[in-house]
Write a structure and sequence with these properties.
With 305 residues, this protein is an alpha+beta fold. It is 50% helix and 9% strand. A hairpin with a 5-residue loop joins strand 5 and strand 6 (152-153). The radius of gyration is 20 Å and the shape is elongated.
């Protein structure tokens, strides 16, 4: 994380975090060779002296349209796991192998390829969702690209119709922020937090959180990690061992209170910054986006929990 922004490599960073999550599933050098081969093909498709717009079009074509450039096997949206709930589906190596992606793996690969094509890109987030921000030099502005739907432009208002989020969450940088390169790396590292949580390594999860927090303090995963860790510790140390609260030895109740307070403090802090639990609304939104819902659609009616 001490690397200068100009030296940050999205592809290598994502693969490194993936390997930390599951050391046996990612061959970083092999994946980078595959990515570099893809970039070489895309550059050839765009042609010599291609403009940024032409390189962007070639990148979209390579990923989403069947042709000899991708052996007639384009990358597609995985409707079976649109949110990447199965964490192994968030791995870049999985997406490269299966060519079925989700709202984590698809923007990560697109950003990695775009960066190697010398396009000015970064990441941004919505509830349970990641998308790409592309700086259009000709227009002089950042444009949202929805990689679960052909990397087509997506207006802020459309994303807000699909993904419930508060004005406060946007103002505080939880969602819709044009992330700096280091903030984007912190968002990529969410998978490391997931891995520690899945393994019940809650102290290690908190240690990773402390490393990430200075780079992107309002990253939602960082905000909620203390609550998740406290809940995991409570489940492990109390709920799984004592059927009733009255069974807990009196000398241990103080520890339970501390964990409850930590979880409550973290959730209240996130809530104060504008976060809300949107439940399964994101799944419905992603299915609409991938199905090509009109960009000028009115407000979506989404189920809330």
């Amino acid at each position: 994380m001490h690397t200068p922004d100009s030296k940050i490599d999205f592809a290598r960073a994502k693969l490194t975090f993936d390997k930390l999550y599951d050391p046996g599933s990612t061959d970083i050098d092999a994946a980078l060779r595959q990515i570099d081969g893809m970039v070489q093909t895309i550059r050839a498709m765009a042609g010599p002296s291609a403009t940024a717009q032409q390189r962007l079009i070639a990148l979209r074509t390579y990923i989403y349209k069947a042709g000899p450039w991708n052996q007639n096997n384009p990358f597609t949206y995985d409707f079976a796991d649109p949110l990447g709930r199965k964490t192994s589906n968030q791995l870049l190596a999985t997406y490269l192998r299966t060519r079925r992606g989700n709202c984590v793996s698809m923007p990560m690969l697109f950003a990695a390829l775009a960066q190697r094509l010398s396009l000015d890109v970064t990441l941004s987030t919505a509830p349970h969702h990641v998308f790409v921000k592309y700086h259009d030099d000709a227009a002089g502005r950042w444009i949202n690209l929805e990689t679960t739907s052909g990397a087509n432009p997506a207006r802020d208002v459309w994303l807000r119709h699909l993904f419930p989020m508060t004005d406060e969450a946007i103002a505080n940088g939880i969602y819709m922020k044009t992330l700096s390169k280091k903030e984007a790396l912190a968002a990529m590292a969410d998978i490391v937090l997931t891995g520690e949580s899945d393994r019940g390594r809650y102290d290690e999860m908190l240690a990773v959180t402390n490393v990430l927090r200075p780079y992107y303090p309002n990253n939602l995963a960082v905000l909620l990690a203390p609550a998740a860790a406290a809940d995991g510790m409570a489940q492990r140390d109390f709920v799984s061992k004592y059927p009733r609260e009255s069974d807990i030895p009196p000398e241990m109740l103080g520890r339970l209170d501390v964990l409850a307070r930590r979880a409550s403090d973290a959730l209240n802090h996130a809530y104060a910054l504008g976060w809300r639990d949107t439940g399964d609304a994101a799944r419905v939104a992603l299915e609409r986006a991938a199905a090509g819902a009109p960009k000028n659609a009115g407000s979506a009616t989404l189920p809330q929990r």
